[in-house]
Amino acid sequence: MGWYATYFIVYFIFMLAIAYYYFKKIKTYEDYLIGGWNTGFWQITGTIISTFCGAAVFIGWVGLGFTVGLSGYWKFAFVAILFSLILILGFARPLRRQKLITLADLFTKRFGGKAGVVPSILSAFIYSVPTTALQMVGMSTVFNITFDMNVSLGIFISFVVILIFTVIGGLPATMLTDAIQSIIIIIGVVILAVVTVVHVGGLSTLFENSSSKLLSISGPDGYGEVLLYALSVGPFYLVWQSIWQRIFAAKSENVAVSANALGFVISGFISILPFIIGLAARQFVPLDMHPDLVFSYVTDLLLSSPLGGLVFLGLLAALMTGATSFILQGSSNLTIDFYQTFINKNASSRKMLVFSRISVAIITILACLFAYTVSDIATTYQWALRLTSTILVIPFIAVMFWKGVTKIGVMVSMIGTAILVLLYPLFNLPIDHAIFGFIISFILLVGTSLLTKHDKLETIQAAYFEKLDNPNLEDYYE
Fold first, then answer.
1. Contact in structure between 470 and 455 (CB atoms under 8 Å)
2. Are 229 and 222 contacting, i.e. CB atoms less than 8 angstroms apart?
3. Which of 313-327, 341-355, 370-384 is the least confident region?
4. CB-based contact 259:250 (threshold 8 Å)
5. How far apart, in whole angstroms, are the C-alpha atoms of residue 69 and residue 281?
6. 35-84: per-residue pLDDT in tens?
7. What predicted TM-score, i.e. pTM, was given to this entire model?
8. Distances from the Cα of 422 to the Cαs of 103, 130, 254, 382, 427, in angstroms?
9. DSSP state of 455
C-alpha cells in the first residue's frame, strides 16, 4: 500500500503543477479548448494514445477478452482504430481548413441558424457525461483495490481531482501530460501482459489451453455478431469530438495528419494486449467474476507493490487523461454552441474563457452523478457510441460530400433518428438497433432533403471540396 500511495501522491502533485503552469499562461478560450492551434507532433501523438487507452482499454477490454477472447479485439479495438484512421487520413485536411472548434461548428457554417444544437447536445451530454463517468468509476476501482477504499468515496475523490486539473489546465495541460502519460500507459500494460502470459506458461501454452472459439476472429458468437458489433460501434469514430479537437489543435495540416495517425497506429498495437490479458486470466480467475474487476484482480494478484503500483499508475494516467479530454469535448460544445449562441453572442474572449471553465464544472458534476449509476463499463460505453454515431454519422458524410442536403433534411434526420433509436426496444425488430438507426438516418436525411428546399441561411457547398463560406452567419444568433 505504501508504494501505491507514493506513486499516486507524486503523480497527482505533478499533474496539478502542470495544470497550474498552464493556468498562468492561458489567455483565451481558444488556448483553453484547442491549444491555440499550435500543438506539436509528439504532444498530439501522446494525447491520442492516452485518450484512446482509457477505462475502455484497461478495464473494459480486459473484461471483454475475459468473456469473448481475442474476437473482442476485432469487434471493438480494431474497428475503432480503422475508422479513426479513415477520419484522419481522409478528412483531417478539409476539416482543418474550415477553422472549426467543434463538430457542431461544421453544421452551423453549412446551414446557418442553430443547426449545431443537436450535435452539441449529443456531444456534451450523451457522450461526454457518461464517458467521463466511466473514467471516475475506473479510478474508484483502482482506489478500492489498492487502498480498500469505498467505491462511492473513490468516485468523489476522482471527481475532485479531475475537476481541479481540468478547470485550471484546459487542453494544453491535458496534451502535455498526455504525452508523458502515454509512456507510463505503454509500460504499465506491457508489464501486466508479460507477467500474466508468463504466469499461465507462455503464449503457446495459453493458446493450447484456450478454446478455439476464444482465439478466432468470430469468437463464441460467430462472424455475424462480430460484424454487427463492429459496424455499430466503428462509425462513431468518424464523429468523435476528441479526435476533431486534436486535428484542430495541431500546428499544421501535416502534423494533424501524421501525428494523429501515428497515435492510433501505436494504440492499435497496445490494444491487443488487454485482450490477451483477459484471455489468459481465464486460466486462473474465477469465471463468474464480473468482467470489470478482472484487470484490478490480476494486477493485485500477480505483481508486487512496486511493479503493481506502476501498472495501476498507468491505469490512473489513462483514466485521468480520458476524463479531461471528454470533459473538454463537452465544454467546447457548451461554450461555443450554447453560451455564445443563446446567451452572449458578443462575449469577449475573456468571458468565453470564464464560461469554458464553468462548463467544465457542469460536465464534471453531471458525470460524477452519473458515475454512481454505472454498473457495466463496456456496455455503457457501447451505448454512448452507438447512439451518437447513428444520429450524426450520416449527416456528417452528407455535409462533407453532398450539396443537395438541406437544413430541414439534416434536422429531421437527427431528431427522428434519436427518437426512433431510443424507442427501438419497443419495436421487437429482427435487426441490430445500430444498423436500424443508420438505415433510418439515411432514409430520413435523403428523403427529406429531396422533398425540401434549401433554407435561406444555408451555404450550398460540400465541405470536403470547398472551404465553407456562409455570408448568412451574421444571422446565426437571431
1. no
2. no
3. 370-384
4. yes
5. 10
6. 656 778 888 888 788 778 765 566 778 888 999 999 989 888 899 899 99
7. 0.83
8. 22, 16, 40, 14, 10
9. P
